[in-house]
Structure formats: C-alpha cells, structure tokens
Amino acid sequence: MLKRTLSSVVLVLVTVIFFLLRRVHYKLFDIYSYIIAIVCTFELLRAYGDDLTRIQKILVMAFTLTVFPVTSLLPSILIQFVASFVAIILFVSVLTTSLDRTDGVTKAVFATFYPTIPLLALLMLNVQGGNGVYYLITALAIPAFTDVGAYLLGSLFKGPKLCPHISPNKTISGAVGGLICGIIATFITYFSLRAFDIDVFRGMKTINIVIFLVVSGIFLSVVAQIGDLVESYLKRRIGIKDMGAIIPGHGGMLDRVDGIAFTSLFTFVIYSLALI
Question: Where are the domains of the chain?
Fold first, then answer.
C-alpha cells in the first residue's frame, strides 16, 4: 500500500511538472504524452510475447514512434482534426472487431492503434493558451475523480458486481460513485479555471453550461470506466496480472493510463465538436 501511494504521488508530481512546463512552451507536454505512448506500446508488445513476430513488433513500434511527430508537424489545424478523427474512427473499428481475436495479425493491428491513438488525443487537446489548459485538466481530472469515487463508494456499499467475468472487484455501487465524482470533476475544473479567467464557455447561457458539464461528466466517466474494463479484459485474454512493473504497486504504465487514454480520446471528440 505504501509503494502504491508513493508511486501515485510521484506520477502525479511528474505530470504536474510537465503540465507546468507548458508555460515555457506548450509543446513540452506533447513530449510527455509521446514518452507515455512509447512506454505503453512497448509494454503491450512485451505482453503479447511470441504471439507477434519480430517484424510485426517493429512495424507497430515504428508507427508509435512516427505518428506523434508527424501529427504535430502537420501544417494546418484542420488537417490535424481530419487526421485525428480518421484515426479515432479506425481505432474504434479496430477495438470493436479485434479485441477478442487471437491471431497474430489482428493483435498487431490492435497494438498499432491501442494505446497510441487514444494518447495521441492528448496532443490534440494541448492547444496553445487557456483552452488547452482546460481541455487537458478535464481529460486528466475526470478519470482520477472517477477512480476515487468508484473506490470509495464501492468499498462502502459493495453490492452486486459490475462485470465479474472481466474485473471481479468492480461493483455497480462503485460505478455509480465514479459517475458522481466524474460530474463533480467537470464542475471543479470549470469553476477553478474560471477564477483564472479561463472560460471556454464564455458567452453561453448558464443553464447550457450546467447541462454540458453534467452530460460530459457522465459520458467521460463512463468512458474512463470502459477504458479500465478494456484493459482488464485484455490482460485476462493475455493471461497476465499487470502489463509491466515500471510503477511499483501499480504495475505498468499502461495499467495506469487506460482510463486517461480513453477519456482523452473522447474529450477531444466532444469538445472539438461542441466548442472548437
């Protein structure tokens, strides 16, 4: 428990440091996202082991190593958006059709898009200025609050299991707690940043802002929990407990960013459609 707590503190501090480095140049947070994507992809390829050939692993890693720099260098924000939405469509298609299959080619295709494409959304959220601050904090805060809410209410009320065949410890009460805290996260993020004159909803009616915060909080909290379940299911299919051991008490990097990856992806979707 002590290792897990200390690791959580260190991980949060590193994230905060890179987030604050945005003041030097906002692209420095992209480097942080890029490093996480590389580590997570490496962990997934190592977990697949001999199920993938050496050339398949090289091709998957080559995609991860190049897609971030290429996307960041695209000349037009419109091109970035189009490329990102195409990537998201491909990711969802691969996720829904390939997660349960066991052949090496399908696993290689899946590893190409997961977790790189979801984490690539962090780059798209990290736009210059106050809006980028708001988007990133939202994408990071909701899964964190969801985890806390799920743990607290799940431990307190227990009750029926959510998906016992995938993750035996998750309960329905915990899922509800996650939803509640996900909504709370959107309001805390909004009002905290508005105090610093960062308001992406400037000009909108108050009732519309409240509705958006509640709906987005529920939706993104559900997405964060789905990301966690996908990771749990993937580990069960592979037959491992953790994706790695880089973070003491937690396992691998991929074990910690599953919710963030999915939340980042869909935060980009809903905010780009609604606000950008």
Answer: 2-274
> What is the number of other CB atoms lying within 10 angstroms of the CB of residue 168?
11
- Give the confidence band of 203 by pLDDT, cuts at 50, 70, 90: confident
Report CA Rg, the chain: 18
Dihedral class, residue 35 (left if φ above 0, else alpha if ψ from -120 to 50, else beta): alpha
**Interval 95-122: pLDDT, tens:** 777 777 778 888 888 888 888 988 888 8
Residue written as token pair 């802002």: 209
Kindly write down the DSSP assignment for every residue of 106-153, as one continuous string: HHHHHHHHTTHHHHHHHHHH--SSHHHHHHHHHHHHHHHHHHHHHHHH
Cα of first residue to Cα of last residue in the chain, in angstroms, is 42
Query: What pTM, to 2 d.p., does this model score?
Result: 0.88
Q: What is the mean pLDDT of residues 12-19?
A: 82
